[in-house]
# Entry
Amino acid sequence: MLKSKSQLLFFLIWFIPILVFAIHFFDFSNFISIISQKTTLNMVVFTLFQALISTVIAFLIAILPSFYASFNKNFLSKLLSSTLFIPFFFPVISATTTFVLIGHQKFFHDIHFLFSLKAIIVANVFFNAPIFIYYLKESFSKIPKTLHDLSVVDGANKNQFICRVLIPLVTPAIFRSGILCFAYCFTNFAIILNLGGLKFSTLEVSIATTLLSSYNFSEAFTYGFIQLIILSTLFYFISSQSSHENEIEQVVSLKTTYITTIISVLFCLFEFAIVALSLIFSFYNFYLGTFSLLPFKELFSLNFNQEYPVLLSFFTTVALSFVTSIITVIVVYFIIKSKTRFTNFFLFSTLGISNAFLAICLIYLNILYNIPIPILLVLGYLIIATPIAYAFISPHFESFPKNIVESAYLSGANRLKLFLYIEWPILKSIFIATFLQIFTIIFGEFTLTYTMQIYSTLPTLSLTTYMLSSSHNLANASALSGISLFFIIILYFLSLSFINRFKN
Amino acid sequence: MKKKLTLLFLLTLSLLSLSNTILTIYLPSNYYNWIRTLPAVVQFQKENALTIHFVSFDGTNKMLTRLELEKNNPKADIVMGLSQMNTIIANQSNLLYGYTPQNISLISNSMKHYILSNAIPFDYGNLAILYDPSVVKNPPKTFMALAKSNYPLIICDPRTSSTGQDFLLWTIAALGPNWQTFWKLSKNSISFIAPSWDSAFSQFEAGESPMMVSYASDEAYSYYSYNSSRYKVLSLSDGSYLEVEFNAIINKQNVSPYSRKFIELMLTPSVQSTIALNNWMLPTTNVALPEIFNKYYPVSTKQLSIPNIELLKNLNLWLEQWQSIVLR
# Structure
């Protein structure tokens, strides 16, 4: 299963911290007692329920926009495709802050939007519907035209073609994206905490509250273990789905209706309004109704930095993101080179590891062995980023012309030469794009650093923003959040330009 | 020559280690900017040729989590701002070192009974209900009236926040066996259970609810910061509950003499006189309070408390009962 050294190394990187923690704190009798409690069952049921209902609604909302994005080539279809930036790169804290501000408006206040299941589901749909759009669009755009022509010859109308041919063909994509959305909704912490409140107890929230209240590390471990088992099982189903992609000369093209266009426009408005509002709130005081750029100016003043390390946290975050992104791309390259049929399952299962729990395990390594915090943080980020980087790079590697590599190998080229003279020139844009995308993800990461409580030791941008917000410097917090978001958007679109360069 | 060089190297090393004594202090984030820049603390570092490494935590419960993890390998020398319940848990795990500072004599008589053998009361404040007078025209005067008033109330989660935990204890101390009735009655009025006081206050300021569980110093803070009483503090006739914050030395093999000195320093007027306007709590020693506190800090004649032994025995049970009432 782990025949490659790189996969074994990655396995050890995430397994050792958890193992060390388990050796010191895991108590089997406690484990049995917790899993047999009714409260645990209720919590698991609620976690599954909110994730399932959010996934189903996200799917229903995404069907027509994905249809539009697949069969049209215009500005709206480009906008729909670029919503993929939201689930992976848009900081959850920025989104929840915007939802909270919207929730305080009269209409939403009257319908008790905030701190309810409604708010949790709407935020989950906002984040996850773009995942469906991405996968469905990819799948729709690979349906051969010949299938459509044959259906028409057999007398099928458009609806019959959609129901009997199109949908069965995209079912694996629905299944894959559904499980991915489900996993994100299942493990989300910030949405539940900020928009639902602690009365909505999911496994991830319980891990955090147990770590912070009862100091029962064995109980937190049990919850983390249940979460890992449930999500690993789901990811096993993803990895067992084989995708057969053939060279298609001509793909099917269908006309979209007005309703599809209207729904797609509304969907774009919903997604981008939240992003735009997050940017606007960085210089607009929502409560006073005034615009001001003063909070931006203050962020860079020396006095302000003596109190809140804005500049230091910017440099720390850039350095950490830079180092981790490079390491992640290298690790993923080696993992792909030695890919086995278990690689997908093995990598995606790590998405089921609770970030809060991982943070405590890493801090425990610092306590026991004095491993410096920056190294532990890089390891933590690597664990989070590797499956995502793998998902980005892997499809491009699969389409790589293997005959060139084989010819070079037969001509006596070693692995370094193969990489330098064949793989790097062809895949350079993809490596850079992945580097930028991982950089962006790490740049906005919050849960890991927050749970490690390293603000005074190694301040990151997200931690400093949080500290500004919690010490009631809301204007400065919004300004810093706006700067981060702007930076993230620029990096994301830069990465897209590299992907397009590769495709061209 | 080699011997001389080695000696010189060792001498330099020892000199460097002497001049770079490090004291590690764990403290909650609301203390961080205040304590590390306090002139008395800066002077203390200069006088003793030592560097203080301040490690801030977002709340005392997270700080205690770290101390529990570090139980067998303590990294901190001193911990500041522990709540009463934190000290009980820390004592149970033998995390704190027994030390009685000489400056303990400065602690006011009313606070002397809070002194523990290994935790020194640093400051204190009364819990209170903060309300928006533009919405709450006729504020309730008792817990039961509060429960029946149906005004939306923001509370902090007693599992994650010391403010939330102390509010739960306040209801228990005030209502005795009827505390569960209060929570059952007010369950539907609770608009938001915040993970921390900061999060609760953000929602209160945004107008989510006209009432929240907070501190008696909030009205003084409102006058000091905004020169107005945008918010008012409600004192309940059932009595008020004190939240006491403690400083302590961490129990480790080599307790630094500077740790003892630092604990002494925290009780001196140069530090205690800065508590009111920085931490919005009251000092435990007899230092003069700013005028604004005399005007806007409500004085309660009925102070409620729960003995440590009872807290230790029942807290987990109370938390479970609270969960089964409020979160089910």
The first helix of chain B runs from residue 2 to 19. Chain B has a mean pLDDT of 89.
